[in-house]
Amino acid sequence: MSLLETIKRAGMDAVSAANPVELLFGTVTGTAPLEVALSQRLTLDEDFLVIPESLTPAELTIGGTVYPLRKGLAAGDRVALLQMQGGGKFLLLDKVVSG
């Protein structure tokens, strides 16, 4: 590898490392399947979302009685997301309750 190629590669790596993720906010528009609107023109479906367990519904059944542990996401919920480097995947962080 030539010196020029090494310098170019180092510069590209520095730019990539400076902006590895971007914080975004969106609104849940559907839950089956999950869809999140980032703007009027951009809606993400489950293929683009990394969904943590804490945002999925969970329930516990004891003696035939079902107890909800987590509600999960609902249409209209505001959410915070991280856009991963390259832009192909978005990590759902949590619901946003104010701001």
Task: Please write out the topology.
Layout: H1 3-18, E1 21-31, E2 34-37, E3 43-45, E4 49-50, E5 58-62, E6 65-70, E7 78-84, E8 90-95
Parallel strand pairs: 4-8
Antiparallel strand pairs: 1-2, 1-7, 2-3, 5-6, 7-8
Judging from the principal axes of the Cα atoms, what is the shape?
A: elongated
Largest sheet: 6 strands, mixed
CATH architecture: Beta Barrel
Side-by-side strand order of the widest sheet: 3-2-1-7-8-4
What does this protein structure show overall?
This protein is α+β, with helices and mostly antiparallel strands and 99 residues long. It has one domain: OB fold (Dihydrolipoamide Acetyltransferase, E2P) (Beta Barrel), CATH 2.40.50. Helix content is 16%, strand content 44%. It contains 1 helix and 8 strands. It has a 6-stranded mixed sheet with strand order 3-2-1-7-8-4, with no helix packed on it. The protein is elongated, with a radius of gyration of 19 Å. The model has no long low-confidence stretch (mean pLDDT 88).
Features:
6-stranded mixed sheet; two-stranded antiparallel sheet; 99 residues; alpha+beta; OB fold (Dihydrolipoamide Acetyltransferase, E2P)
Condensed summary:
This protein has 99 residues and is α+β, with helices and mostly antiparallel strands.
